[in-house]
Amino acid sequence: MTSTETEAATEAAVMSETPAAPKPSRAAGGTAQTVGRRKEAVVRVRLVPGSGQFKLNGKPLEDYFPNKVHQQLIREPLVTVEKPESFDISANLRGGGPSGQAGALRLAIARALAEIDADDRPALKKAGFLTRDARATERKKYGLKKARKAPQYSKR
């Protein structure tokens, strides 16, 4: 057997193999549980196929986040994948303030959507919803009033 015959035989063997089946999603039955974090906030989310209901610490979305900007921020991943009313979302929110909790909730929802349907992952990634915002509060340093604010300076 010459090298070209060997190459041809190898190529034929490779071509005859069946392509790998798509990896099944880890989410059983279309449900997913994920965690999102931002600043000091930690959010645990459970996505279940449903009618678009939100339960955040037992309250509806409008009661927990009265600010429309936060509500829009939270719904963005669902709108991006064109499934705004396909899932019921229940979440346990702890720590931080409203803005941090809203950001953490958005990350958790995006992660759950990517886990349920792998085809949605590129759109969510392109929109930046799967990226953890690593910014955190800078620590206070001794000799300063705050993290960077120095006491008033007097020349004399």
**Structural class designation:** alpha+beta
Alpha-carbon distance between the termini?
94 Å
Order of helices and strands: HEEEHHEHH
Instruction: Summarize the biggest pleated sheet.
Output: 4 strands, mixed
Oligomer state of the chains in this structure: single chain
Work out the helix count. Answer: 5
Dominant shape: flat
CATH architecture of the domain at 26-127: 2-Layer Sandwich
Give helix % range. 25-40%
Under CATH at level 1, the class of the domain at 26-127 stands as Alpha Beta
Q: What Rg do the Cα atoms give?
A: 24 Å
Please name the CATH topology of the domain at 26-127: Ribosomal Protein S5, domain 2
Keywords: Ribonucleoprotein, Ribosomal protein
InterPro entries: Ribosomal_Su5_D2-typ_SF, Ribosomal_uS9, Ribosomal_uS9_bac/plastid, Ribosomal_uS9_CS, Ribsml_uS5_D2-typ_fold_subgr
Protein name: Small ribosomal subunit protein uS9
Region (Disordered): 1-36
How is the topology of this model organized?
Blueprint: H1 3-16, E1 32-38, E2 41-49, E3 54-56, H2 61-64, H3 68-80, E4 87-94, H4 98-116, H5 121-127
Parallel strand pairs: 3-4
Antiparallel strand pairs: 1-2, 2-4
Helix pairs in contact: 3-4
Question: Could you explain how this protein is built, in words?
Answer:
With 156 residues, the chain is α+β, with helices and mostly antiparallel strands. It has a domain at 26-127: Ribosomal Protein S5, domain 2. It is built from five helices and four strands, in the order H-E-E-E-H-H-E-H-H. It has helices at 3-16, 61-64, 68-80, 98-116, 121-127, and strands at residues 32-38, 41-49, 54-56, 87-94. Strand 1 and strand 2 form a beta hairpin. The protein is flat and about 90 Å long. It starts with a helix and ends in a 29-residue tail after the last helix. Mean pLDDT is 87; it is low at 18-22.
